[in-house]
Design a protein that fits this description.
By secondary structure, the protein is an alpha+beta fold. It is about 50% helix and about 15% strand. It has helices spanning about 10-15, 110-115, 135-150, 160-185, 185-205, 210, 215-225, 230-240, 245-260, 265-275, 280-290, 295-300, and strands at about 5, 25-30, 45-50, 50-60, 65, 70, 75-80, 85, 95-100, 130.
Length: about 300
């Protein structure tokens, strides 16, 4: 098993990547061509306690997304939140680009410090990266270079606010570009929706509710080979409902059929659907339908 090495600071990251000392204690822009990795680098796993945004450009490469390939192959952006594990793999020497690293302390007390926790793409898997066009890549790279210019000049009382503002603008563009990516993959996303619906049918038509309880968002994401947040964002974009909302809706529809089409007690229905306690089932049913299971059964 590869040993874990914590990366707790920008200085730690520079040391592991074989770079000179960082120019700023809380933020750094690293060019991939400048990395000087020793032979032991790929033998470890690294826990990056930093925000990590990386642009990788393949000079003669295409990028896959899951099992598919897509049109936007001029570059790919990966977003990593603090605390995630990175396992280095061999990369083609033709790949270039940059990494923007910044410590959470840079954002302390700022609006962005709260906002960044709501950006789900920092929890996407690497195969759910943002693929940017040439124009989009230029916009993002120009902002990153502005950040680098800002911390390389004389630091003053405005420097941190300016840097944070540029990061905020960068992330606003990335949110827009991810929205575009969901739109360009609309036909493929519909296939995933059908697969997700099939997953729920198979789950509730098996013994899994009795053995495992209710399906979780994490379970569904893993079964779909997606990160849970990406699956929820995909479903919300296409249907207006998150993964959990889809699960709840499926449970309610199945419960309605059982309430009207069987003589099972409410407790038996609850257990058959995977609820550990019938009261939890009744609470969810009433929340979604404004009626208790008993009221629904009696009025229909």
């Amino acid at each position: 098993m590869k040993p874990f090495i914590p990366i707790n600071s920008v200085a730690d990251a520079h040391r592991v990547l074989g770079l000179d000392s960082a120019d700023h204690p809380l933020i750094s822009v690293v060019n991939l061509e400048d990395l000087r990795l020793d032979a032991s680098f790929s033998k470890h796993k690294y826990v990056f306690n930093l925000y990590h945004i990386a642009l990788k450009v393949g000079k003669n490469a295409s990028f896959g997304y899951g099992r598919n390939s897509y049109d936007f192959q001029d570059g790919t952006l990966v977003f990593i939140a603090p605390g995630q594990v990175i396992s280095p793999e061999h990369e083609d020497k033709a790949i270039s680009g940059w990494i923007l690293l910044f410590h959470p302390d840079l954002l302390r007390g700022s609006e962005l410090g709260n906002k960044i926790n709501t950006l789900n793409y920092f929890a996407y898997s690497s195969n759910e990266a943002l693929h940017v066009s040439k124009k989009e890549k230029t916009i993002i790279s120009n902002l990153v270079h502005r950040i680098q210019e800002e911390y390389n000049q004389n630091i003053d009382n405005h420097s941190q606010n300016v840097i944070i503002s540029i990061i905020d603008l960068l992330l606003n563009y990335c949110t827009r570009f991810y929205e575009r990516q969901f739109n360009t993959r609309a036909n493929n996303n519909k296939k995933y929706i059908l697969q997700f619906e099939q997953l729920l049918r198979e789950y509730f038509n098996s013994n899994k509710p009795l053995e495992m309880g209710l399906p979780t968002v994490k379970y569904c994401g893993e079964a779909m080979h997606m990160s849970p947040k990406y699956l929820s964002d995909l479903l919300r974009k296409e249907t207006g409902r998150s993964t959990l909302e889809h699960i709840h809706q499926y449970i309610i529809n199945k419960a309605k059929n059982e309430l009207l089409g069987s003589n099972l007690s409410i407790s038996e229905i609850a257990y058959s659907l995977g609820f550990e306690y019938p009261q939890y089932f009744s609470n969810l049913f009433k929340k979604e339908t404004k009626l208790s299971p008993r009221q629904y059964r009696n009025i229909n």
